[in-house]
Specification:
4 strands; 9 helices; globular; about 10% strand; Rossmann fold; alpha/beta; four-stranded parallel sheet; about 50% helix; single chain; about 180 residues
């Protein structure tokens, strides 16, 4: 029986699940870096919303999935976790930590017949991103959901959504540090 009270309540209501979707990106927090600079206590909430909270929630399902020998976890990360950038490096660090957690969880659950998909969306039209200046190539939640469904059905390990973010982030990741430090991204 699950130890986490929320996981237990879900289990009691629904029984064994075929999968778990973590939706932290749609309800998480991403304060402006300037707000964090002014109030470093905001770091705690950002990391809780985007890393430790989702990891603790998902961890509650691990024993059930191992016992069942199947199931899928979908963890919503962010392209922000691929490289620390001046505008949101605390949020990016939290997402990078969550990506690493999902990678380890994927390795663990694969041995038990389960699967973990890491989803790295770019900008998604949600309440968390509403009104942020400089947004471009914004995806609808419906398009992201379709990409996630395809990834689950095809047993993908990691996806970028929309797909072109894979290439944008590949370029960003390969900019040499001495040049990247001079950029304002």
């Amino acid at each position: 029986m699950p130890e986490n009270p929320l996981v237990k309540a879900i289990y009691d209501k629904l029984g064994a699940l075929d999968g778990v979707l973590n939706v932290a990106v749609f309800v998480g927090s991403m304060p402006d870096q300037s707000d964090i600079d002014a109030d470093p206590s905001l770091i705690d909430g950002t990391i809780m919303d985007s890393f430790t909270g989702p990891a603790r929630f998902l961890q509650g399902f691990v024993p059930m999935m191992e016992q069942r020998g199947s199931g899928t976890v979908v963890g919503i990360g962010s392209v922000a976790g691929d490289r620390g950038r001046i505008g949101n490096y605390v949020y990016g660090a939290a997402k990078d930590g969550f990506h690493t957690y999902l990678s380890g969880l994927r390795n663990r659950l694969t041995k038990a017949g389960g699967h973990v998909v890491t989803v790295k969306p770019g900008f998604v039209d949600t309440g968390m991103t509403w009104g942020i200046e400089g947004m471009f190539l914004v995806a609808s939640p419906e398009d992201v959901a379709r990409d996630i469904e395809k990834a689950v059905n095809k047993q993908r390990n990691t996806i970028y959504t929309p797909f072109f973010w894979r290439y944008i982030m590949l370029i960003i990741q390969h900019i040499p540090e001495f040049i990247f430090k001079k950029m304002s991204i």
